[in-house]
Design goal:
This protein has about 120 residues and is of the alpha/beta class. It has helices spanning about 10-20, 35-45, 60-70, 85-95, 105-115; strands at about 5, 25-30, 50, 75-80, 100.
């Protein structure tokens, strides 16, 4: 079973996405911040991570930088409600496989996530 980690500081988004992907037979883990995400990545070894760009304790870019040191090949899709060209450039340089904007369009989210998990 594919493993998906959803990292977002908004609980309603985490729970909504968790339920959405569990119904699609994906094992889902959630984290509310960067430190918790890094612990779960180490422990659970997700196949794909949906990583929020803007969070309180650590930004998504900071999490991504740390992640690339320990698990350079894990697939990451950045999630953001704000268009920020500098962040997009940096995320791309760190090897993200995609970028999804909030609010989610479910069909788009499902298509992107399933495409990456089936790769």
């Amino acid at each position: 079973m594919a493993k998906l980690l959803i990292v977002d500081d908004e609980s309603d988004i985490r729970e909504f996405a968790r339920n959405f992907f569990k119904k699609r037979k994906i094992e889902v883990f959630v984290a509310s911040g960067g430190r918790q995400a890094l612990e779960l990545i180490s422990k659970e070894g997700p196949d794909l991570i949906l990583l929020d760009v803007r969070m309180e304790e650590m930004t998504g870019i900071e999490v991504l930088r740390e992640l690339r040191q320990s698990k350079p090949s894990v697939k990451v899709i950045m999630v953001s409600g704000v268009e920020d060209e500098e962040t997009i450039k940096e995320a791309n340089a760190l090897g993200v496989v995609g970028y999804i904007h909030k609010p989610f369009i479910l069909e788009e989210l499902e298509k992107i996530v399933l495409a990456q998990l089936n790769n």
